[in-house]
Amino acid sequence: MRFDKLLKRLGIGEKSRLEAATNFILRYWWLWCLIFIVLFSFWSRMLPAKYGELQALDPFYAYRMNLYMLENNLQLPLHDNMRYWPDGIGIKYYGPLLYFYLPVVLYLVFVFFGAGMTYLEFAIMYPALMGAVSVFFIFWLAREIFDDNKAGLFSALFLATVPGYLARTSAGFFDKEATGGTFMLIALFLFVRAYKTNSWKLSLLSAAFVFLAMGSWGGAQFIIYILSVFLLFKLVINQYSVKMVSAGILPLLSAILTQRFFLGVTGISFEQVVASITVCVILIRFAAEKYKLVKDEQLPYFVPGLFVVIILFVLLGSMFIDPLWNIVQRGIGLIYIQEKGFIGATVAEQQEGTWGDVTSRTTITYSRSILGLPQIFETLFSIWFLFIVGSLAILYSVYKERNWTLLLPLFWLVMSIQTVFFMVRLVFFLGPPSAVMAGYAMAFMLNKFSGLEYIKRKEGLKKINILSIPVIAVVSLVVLSNLATGFVFTNSVGPSYNSYWDQAMNYLKTETPVNSSILSWWDFGYWFQTKGERPSIADGGNNNGTVNQQIAQWYVADSTNWTDYRWWYKGKDVDYILMDYTLPGKYGAISKIASRGDTVIGMLQMQQSKTYPQQNKTIIEYKAGQYAVWLPVSSGGQIAGSPIFMITQGDQYVGRNYITDICTVNGIIRTEPPENGNVMPGCVTIAPYGLFYIPPEAEFSIFTNLMFMDGYGIPDVKKVFDNQLIKIYKLEINESIS
Prior knowledge:
With 738 residues, this protein is of the alpha+beta class. It is built from 29 helices and 14 strands.
């Protein structure tokens, strides 16, 4: 009422108020679009929350540590005995500490303001919330770089929906990337703003967010390369500005100090060298001009000459000084992808990526189930295609306008693609720059269209004409297809932790003594610690490669040599052994680690496809790709002969080989093949999740015995849990039995 009276006193009537409101809405059209995109981003990212569980594996570690902090006055344990039992690990192995503190502090703020939620509910929501914050800030970043609201909005839209970024910022993926990635975007935005406005204050804020980013995620050190490459490039092409001093020095110094003193990086890292060189070159260039150390006509050649000196010093010095040689090696490693160690080479997420990985994480193919667009549209509207267009558009704009700041997102994109080629899990890095470049592509094309003389002459509704209608249709399809992609992708995301695992972890938690240790492959160690509340011998942190190799060598050892490992069981204080249904598929990695990369032995898993009645028995066919096994079974369900291993070529079966050995819970049973039949070594075994062909190198291993034969003939173990997919054995060493 008071507002209405004020308007009347000002002489603004109902009609004027309506006009003012309309003008306000139209003037800030981009704000309403941004609000919609951010809300959609948060809503779609929250879809996996319906399962009420964390995703993947690593988030369970962070969640366990956070629960400890909430119960112990925000203190982390000085020594975590749940990991790598019985030795545990010290706090220096925890990684970036802000990774643990920031979510807990934010949760306490939520609780203080009356948010009634458990920490599990908050942990599930947290990555979706941070993902939405990223979407909000990438609008301002793109808007600042390109000085265009449309570029900002499209960038926000694409980051809200790009699968490569959604995967690690959706509800339940409670890991480092959501925190560190968001703060890295904010730091970049503040840097660009500080650079354009020559502001020390904004640069200081950027430095603060660099600290928050790197303090919560090791991958955030990537910002060092983004800033350094951009600033050094401008110096080399003689585009020096005093704004480099005010905007670039503090964020880079913050990165150096954070890595050196907060993250405890010993020695001089390559990132510190890159940041230090950038800072020194900027300061030297500043001093050269300010104090007339170099003649004005020589300034364009000063920095290139300085670089030649630095490069020669490093290259020549590397022949005599080990730290310089390490710097050269690390620099080469950023360009030339070097072979990983035999342990790292077995981890799927650490494999080298390909261009196919880039396109598959930035595609709109997921929208097919809703929109069903033709293949050509799926290509043209995908972010990967648009960021290629955006790259070409930026090069054109730089050529025409000489606005070198536009190269920042292009450098960012190229470096992000290189990181994917280095390690496929780093596809997360690709999300923001690909969104920015694709957003610029859309804005560039729309601006070119709007600049056509024919369109500029039109006014009001006349702008909707034979040319603009197709453009509106295309833009609408781009928006809808990407929104659909975000929805379909996040709606299909769910936790790996299922009811079978829940049964097994509940058994550990309720039916085993406290601090009973669990021996298994490293993958699910965090689940044993968090859900089973029991320490594990190894886990996904891979902080102790020696343990991984010891477990691998134990797995592949002959089961008749079981007692040779009693000293090892005692040294590791093993209480229980867990075997799960995913392990046969990892036997290749296990054998590779056991042999230090020399040997890879795989187990072939097949699924039932057909049945063929045959007199008094049935032939059950199991297939996996081109391989097939025919298993004869009697009317009573017993194996009634030797399985036949074949290779399929279309509808033809070739290479009939009989497998005489059947691995069962009653030991290895041998069958009689037909006379003159080709016999194939190894054995087959039937599990609730398929038929397995086990090669002869693994047939008599401890792994095969525990996985498929219930520990037949092995002393010291007793099966205490079995839900068909997961088995748990109790280990009780009896020295009297050899």
